[in-house]
Amino acid sequence: MRLLAISPKAIVRRIWKWFVSRTRIEPILETTIVKGALSPMYCLGGLTFMFFFLLAITGMMLGMYYQPSPDTAYNSIQEIATNVRYGWLIRGVHFYSANGMIITSILHMLRVYFTGAYKKPRELNWIVGVALGAFTIMAGFTGYVLRWDQEAVAASGVGLGLAGAVPWFGNFLTNFIWGRNYADTLGRFFALHVWLIPGLLMVLMLSHFWMVRRHHIARPL
Description:
Blueprint: H1 2-5, H2 8-23, H3 26-29, H4 44-63, H5 73-82, H6 87-114, H7 123-145, H8 150-164, H9 170-178, H10 182-215
Helix pairs in contact: 4-6, 5-6, 6-7, 7-10, 8-9
């Protein structure tokens, strides 16, 4: 009966207090933001992370129906868009989130560059950010190929030519990513898009956020 007498707000406060004391996240909760960082231009990094989160959720949903085979890939996408309940919405959110992540990551890098936020002591974080931007573009390209329609197959051929032109590593990249036939190509692009690139993005994001936490947000020029 005593538990029933406690209000829901009091229960939530107790749970939150227990969580904070056990995780010791007080320094994160108490972090102050400089006034200049309240500008919308300083929210681009957070928007990029938000798009990544949406991509992860919708990507897991799409992966339940997508079939990474040259004979079934395109048909499985059409099945998602037409017959799966809310499949068109999930695919649309995934598509526009991918474009949004690329756009906001590029704008974020431009903002960091033109405001001088990459300078000492943030040089390493700038390098990590550039790597994040590169992997974001790679994620977009590999996802585009997974449609496996005529345009996607042509795009994979363009990528093959670009990879083959890389000095010293061109042959290795073409053999490693494209394989011997279309089945190898699509399967490896699927693995890159679903497992390898997102994993690297998460590791780099964690290090990026940690260094931002250590060095704080750079003040505008």
